[in-house]
Amino acid sequence: MFQLNIKRESSELSYVFDQPRLVIGSKGSPPVDLTLSDPALLPVHLNIFRRGKDYYAENVGHDPETQVSGIPFWKKRLK
């Protein structure tokens, strides 16, 4: 299980998931698990997946504005 906090300009969204993989994007096709309304997001923007006991985030959209704890990334192990 993991908690995902998404900070946007003046708000923060929080989600809890209990699945081995989560796909985040702006549209439902190809299938995504979490759809966010944001013109900057690609249809498939971010993958979060479990490998062993660890979770990883993969910036599929290669968007430099996508960050973990304020730091841009392409693929990162989450804590």
Task: Catalogue the unreliable spans.
Answer: none
The amount of helix comes to under 10%
Q: How confident overall, as mean pLDDT? A: 88
What structural class is derived from the secondary structure elements?
mainly beta
Tell me the quaternary state. Answer: single chain
Number of helical segments with 4 or more residues: 0
Q: In one word, what is the shape?
A: globular
The total count of strands amounts to 9
> What is the CA-based Rg, rounded?
12 Å
N-end to C-end Cα span = 12 Å
Give the strand order of the largest sheet, numbering strands 1, 2, ... along the chain: 4-3-5-6-9
The largest β sheet comes out as: 5 strands, mixed
Order of helices and strands: EEEEEEEEE
Strand content is over 45%
List the SSEs and their pairings.
Blueprint: E1 2-8, E2 11-17, E3 21-25, E4 34-35, E5 46-51, E6 54-58, E7 67-68, E8 71-72, E9 75-78
Parallel strand pairs: 3-4
Antiparallel strand pairs: 1-2, 3-5, 5-6, 6-9, 7-8
Please tag this protein with its features.
two-stranded antiparallel ribbon; 79 residues; single chain
